[in-house]
Amino acid sequence: MSDPSARQAQLRARVIELALAQDPYGHIFAGKDFRRDYVAARTVAWSMLFKDMRDTTSRVLEIGSKEGRSAVFWLEFFAGAHLTCVDLFREDDAERFDRNLSAYGTRLRKIVGTSIRALGILREENAVFDFIYVDGSHRRDDVMVDCSAPGACCAMAA
Ligand SMILES: C[S@@+](CC[C@H](N)C(=O)[O-])C[C@H]1O[C@@H](n2cnc3c(N)ncnc32)[C@H](O)[C@@H]1O
Prior knowledge:
It is built from six helices and five strands, in the order ααβαβαβαβαβ. By secondary structure, it is of the alpha/beta class. The chain has one domain (about 5-155): Vaccinia Virus protein VP39 (Rossmann fold), CATH 3.40.50. The protein has a five-stranded parallel β-sheet with strand order 3-2-1-4-5, covered by helices on one side. β1 (about 60-65), α3 and β2 (about 80-85) form a beta-alpha-beta unit. The mean pLDDT is about 95. S-adenosylmethionine binds next to α3 and β2. S-adenosylmethionine (SAM) binds near residues 86, 87, 88, 135 and 136.
């Protein structure tokens, strides 16, 4: 194969295939409706990196939730936590997100709109988070704003 981008796409698909086959968290996504997977290749690393925060994390903020796959992971991993999800929820992401997260009820808050608007709302509320996952806009300036969210630990999607 001579096209480097095709080779890269093939390798990426293979990494996801291997990660899915060995994902200890695979079962938490069963029966849910996702089109994209930005999570499978990361659950093992996340579970090792954030293991020591698992029992003490009670307030989680996620910027960029899309259909809710990473949101499901955080709610399962931080089993005692409340999660605030921020996203533009474009097209049918909102319906999929609502369906995929319906089991979590009062543990979840959804803020629809840009992260800069959501962060304004959260600041007015004096909200502070134990853990923040930044996976919204990947433009440099937006990421810098998102990483200014009030919290103790901020993880970014690569
Ligand atoms: C990579 S996807 C998130 C995937 C999700 N974390 C997961 O793993 O399932 C990025 C999301 O960020 C949202 N987004 C992009 N720019 C945004 C902004 N300025 N404010 C809020 N959300 C934004 C998009 O609508 C999209 O759903």
